[in-house]
Structure to design on (1013 residues):
């Protein structure tokens, strides 16, 4: 199905958060953040006089006069509540002005004096501050152990003990984070005269992956009840996780609008996004694998060190895919984090699985080489019958079929495993394989369906962040209603619609689709209206391990004189339940693989140790894959029937495409050159060193 | 952004006459406008020279004359550039993106500023942006910065690909200023940082580039190669512009070599040229020539890779240019 909003997007009619006009009686003001230039310390003074004297400046917000926020506000959102600076680039003040240009110019005139303290922004495995968190994102155990690990390693016929590193990486959606806040009432707690603020209403046009949760977080931060806040987010230009939680720009828009009594827009610059919208933590991962002479794993240990901020603990679940992938009598997975003077890391496409599978799937390649086995066969032979750590049966698992089908399509049987022996002109060539996995979960959501104008309207606070969710939900509703898709209109992107899960964790379609199908069934039963809440259905999702699987095959060319790496061929074969829309699915999968290619070869946020700042904070310096990097790329999928998922029989596909790509490319670089680069990205500099 | 005045010049004389303290010339704006948004450049007055009648590419004796307002994409697509100066056409095509090349002018390309991350961030010290404030790149991140000709004041690199080809081609840059016209031979337009890293070029206040004149193409085969980790839309880690003429008996009669991504200016590799000219063409001679050029390289800890990269790239490009 073509994207429903496609014509609106290509003609510019589709409105994104920063593009909404004010109401007829309003004129919009603009807020621009002032960011800390130190990574740790205290603000001694804030001199806003010069900024306030500039024509068009309406207000300067800062900790000199902290905006009223809930005392329980999450520290990353608790704007200007403290004099303490937690990281470089933190919003420490803001200018509100008649124009964006004035606000930006005045922001440079706000003079802040700091008392800096020594900062620490460098993750290292011998950091004395490393500790084991209570849980890893979102609620997995930090450590799992079973079997006799030392015995399994010591008794192994073949073993490896290697350490991999992945760098800080940033989501870079095309649409920067933006919001416009519009208050009704005074916004200052006396909307209905009783001083409790319950008469105030706030509408925020935000760029978010989930209007319901964004609404709740904004309300909680401001100390309002959720029914006083409405989030509208009809179109979102990408998120990848960075818009999955509320970001400071939305709070800034709200407090600035309250301060000046006018609608206020905040549109972050690309540079401001780097410290203010989350990032993927760097990781250092030690992998120890042991296998018997037949290649059967005897022991797996996956020990991770990663970072969080001093404000909020975010512990990425990096080793969790190892709990899913391969069977071994002894296994240990562990996470340690250290609180550094950095922004809080957060979700970036496939948090956990993406960096974790780079390490595990590179290590499996190294083990295959050490054991003299084909890397496809090594994976096949270690296929577990049940989920290794939980012992649960898989609802469906077709990793072996993906590996086999991928090998067939890719021509893997013609591969000579010897490294560094193939060339084509100046290029050494090689191929590599890696597995992919991602959980197939769903979360409670609500939906309504009504008959209207001879057709149907389905309402749900889902988010279409560029994935085509609106289109997929229309197809799902049409099927449930047994109606043609052009008679079904799906409304999403508004917190006033029935409450729904965020577009995250590859759970969007599964969560929303479950509610939509149920609401449509309810309508068919009742005549003209249907409503659904899947809370109970989701509670019943016990007893199975649910994951999508895949296999990725990469061909690389390496100019060993210059260190350039190119990827002429990339194939992904996935088993992800029923694919609802092939066009949208292919776009998600090759999009993920392309992002994985960028992770393999170029994506890296450089931190300036002297200041603690993210240095390469724009798209000219932070490189993501360009069109020219993507040559022959293909994603295909196997038919997979799974009765244990949801009414659609679908597994999420937003993230699995990025999982394993970097390992497949790294393994291919080894095959091409005989050089194993264990810290991403695999750059010319590293290949020449 | 600071408020500024904007004028569009009708002719070269008017542009130069309109230049005063705080004035900058505006070409395609693909670099200057970015720098203004970042607060790195704060002109009080812009004189737009992009519409000046300097858009011609025309035969010039044995050579070629390229107007300063010619767009990068026009130059790269021009038959004379493609057929007679393929090194130049390729260099231009490896720069930026199609959209940027459609906007960027030839004169502006030469005068673009370094992409050193510290230079582009007004919250950081930078001797080029704020003389005397220091160079945090030396102890900080300098992976993409200079390995030769730099000083303790500045390790910036010049980002232009086109300028590297022009340096190898013995191009001459024509400028008009308050004191009249003069001609600057490439690579002499750009300077090494010395003790004045804030000065990228030898241009005097008010001088405007009006044209680039190329002499006849060098004899033999020529090429431009650029190494970068992303296949497009990335600045060079190292680039090489080269031309090589080998006689029937295998002797190098003429050789041109220039390097990009290694220095504050496009780097004409004259030592390598001298070492190679008159020698028997081949792997050994190429390697000796590259070593001669890079003997003075003084990389920082984070950009040591550029020395083998430059050496290997010089040899690889010369190898490609050997007659078959």
């Amino acid at each position: 199905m073509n994207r429903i909003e496609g014509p609106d997007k290509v003609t510019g009619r589709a409105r994104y958060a920063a593009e909404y006009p004010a109401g007829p009686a309003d004129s919009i003001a603009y807020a621009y953040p002032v960011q800390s230039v130190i990574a740790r310390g205290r603000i001694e003074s804030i001199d806003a006089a010069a900024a306030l004297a500039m024509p068009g400046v309406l207000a300067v917000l800062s900790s000199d006069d902290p905006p009223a926020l809930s005392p329980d506000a999450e520290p990353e959102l608790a704007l200007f509540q403290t004099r303490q600076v937690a990281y470089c680039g933190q919003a420490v003040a803001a200018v509100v002005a008649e124009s964006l240009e004035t606000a930006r110019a005045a922001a440079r005139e706000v003079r802040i004096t700091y008392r800096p303290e020594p900062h620490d922004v460098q993750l290292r495995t011998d950091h004395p501050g490393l500790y084991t968190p209570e849980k890893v994102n979102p609620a997995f155990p930090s450590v799992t152990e079973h079997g006799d690990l030392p015995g399994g390693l010591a008794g192994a016929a073949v073993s490896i003990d290697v350490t991999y590193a992945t760098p800080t990486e940033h989501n870079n959606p095309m649409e920067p984070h933006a919001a416009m806040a519009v208050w009704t009432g005074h916004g200052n707690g006396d909307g209905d005269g009783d001083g409790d603020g319950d008469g105030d209403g706030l509408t925020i046009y935000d760029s978010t992956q989930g209007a319901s949760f964004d609404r709740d977080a904004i309300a909680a931060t401001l100390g309002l009840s959720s029914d006083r806040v409405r989030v509208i987010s009809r179109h979102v230009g990408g998120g990848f996780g960075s818009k999955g939680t509320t970001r400071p720009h939305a709070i800034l828009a709200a407090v600035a609008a309250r301060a000046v009594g006018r609608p206020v827009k905040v549109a972050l610059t690309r540079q401001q996004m780097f410290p203010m919208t989350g990032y993927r933590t760097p990781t250092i991962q030690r992998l120890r694998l042991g296998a018997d002479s037949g290649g059967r794993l005897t022991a797996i240990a996956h020990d991770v060190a990663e970072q969080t901020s001093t404000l909020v603990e975010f512990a990425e679940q990096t080793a969790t895919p190892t709990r899913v992938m391969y069977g071994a009598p002894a296994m240990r997975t562990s996470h340690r984090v250290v609180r550094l003077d950095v922004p809080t890391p957060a979700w970036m496409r496939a948090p956990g699985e993406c960096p974790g599978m780079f390490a595990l799937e590179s290590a499996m390649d190294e083990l295959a080489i050490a054991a003299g086995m084909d890397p496809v066969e090594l994976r096949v032979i270690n296929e577990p019958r049940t989920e290794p750590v939980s012992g649960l049966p898989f609802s469906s698992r077709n990793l072996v079929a993906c590996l086999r089908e991928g090998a067939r399509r890719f021509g893997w049987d013609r591969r000579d495993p010897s490294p560094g022996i193939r060339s084509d002109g100046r290029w050494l060539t090689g191929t590599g394989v890696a597995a992919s996995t991602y959980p197939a979960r769903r979360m409670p959501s609500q939906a309504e369906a009504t008959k209207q104008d001879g057709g149907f309207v389905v309402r749900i606070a889902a988010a279409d962040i560029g994935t085509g969710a609106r289109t997929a939900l229309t197809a799902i509703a049409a099927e449930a209603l047994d109606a043609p898709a052009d008679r079904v209109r799906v409304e999403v992107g508004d917190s006033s619609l029935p409450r729904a899960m965020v577009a995250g964790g590859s759970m969007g379609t599964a969560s929303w689709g479950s509610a939509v199908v149920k609401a449509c069934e309810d309508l068919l039963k009742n005549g003209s209206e249907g409503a659904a809440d899947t809370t109970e259905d989701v509670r019943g999702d016990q007893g199975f391990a649910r994951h999508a699987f895949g296999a990725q095959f990469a061909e690389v060319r390496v100019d060993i004189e210059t260190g350039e790496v190119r990827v002429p061929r990339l194939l992904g074969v996935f088993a992800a339940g029923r694919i609802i829309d092939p066009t949208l699915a292919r776009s998600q999968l090759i999009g993920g693989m392309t992002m994985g290619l960028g992770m393999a070869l170029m994506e890296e946020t450089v931190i300036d140790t002297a200041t603690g700042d993210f240095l390469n904070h724009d798209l000219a310096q932070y490189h993501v894959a360009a069109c020219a990097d993507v040559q022959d790329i293909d994603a295909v999928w196997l038919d997979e029937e799974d009765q244990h998922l949801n009414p659609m029989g679908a597994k999420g596909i937003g993230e699995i495409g990025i999982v394993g790509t970097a390992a497949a490319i790294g393994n291919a670089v080894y095959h091409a050159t005989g050089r194993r680069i264990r810290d991403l990205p695999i750059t010319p500099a590293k290949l020449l060193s | 952004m600071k408020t500024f005045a904007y004028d569009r010049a009708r002719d070269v004389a008017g542009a130069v006459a309109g230049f005063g303290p705080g004035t900058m010339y505006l070409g395609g704006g693909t670099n200057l406008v970015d720098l203004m948004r970042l607060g790195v450049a704060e002109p009080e007055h812009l004189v737009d020279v992009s519409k000046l009648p300097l858009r011609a590419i025309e035969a010039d004796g044995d050579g070629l004359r390229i107007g300063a307002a010619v767009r990068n994409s026009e130059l790269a697509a021009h038959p004379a550039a493609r057929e007679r100066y393929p090194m130049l056409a390729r260099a231009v095509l490896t720069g930026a993106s199609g959209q940027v090349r459609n906007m960027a002018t030839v004169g502006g390309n030469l005068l673009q500023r370094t992409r050193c991350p510290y230079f582009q961030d007004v919250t950081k010290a930078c001797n080029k942006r704020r003389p005397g404030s220091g160079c945090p790149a030396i102890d900080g991140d300098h992976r993409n910065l200079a390995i030769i000709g730099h000083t303790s004041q500045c390790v910036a690199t010049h980002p232009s690909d086109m300028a590297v080809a022009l340096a190898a081609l013995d191009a001459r840059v024509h400028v008009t200023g308050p004191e009249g016209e003069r001609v600057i031979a490439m690579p002499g337009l750009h300077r090494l940082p010395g003790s004045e890293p804030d000065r990228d070029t030898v241009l005097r206040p008010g001088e405007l580039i009006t044209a680039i004149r190329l002499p006849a193409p060098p004899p033999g085969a020529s090429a431009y190669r650029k190494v970068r980790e992303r296949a497009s839309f990335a600045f060079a880690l190292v680039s090489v512009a080269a031309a090589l003429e080998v006689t029937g008996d295998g002797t190098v009669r003429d050789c041109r070599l220039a390097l990009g991504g290694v220095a504050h200016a496009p780097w004409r590799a004259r030592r390598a040229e001298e070492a190679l000219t008159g020698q028997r063409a081949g792997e050994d001679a190429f390697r000796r020539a590259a070593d001669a050029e890079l003997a003075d390289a003084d990389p920082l800890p984070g950009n040591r890779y550029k020395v083998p990269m430059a050496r290997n790239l010089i040899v690889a490009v010369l190898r490609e240019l050997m007659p078959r």
Observations:
- The interface with chain A takes residues 1-2, 39, 115, 117-118, 120-124, 136, 139-141, 143, 227-235, 237-238, 303-305, 308-309, 312-313, 315-316 of chain B (CB under 8 Å).
- Chain B has a mean pLDDT of 97.
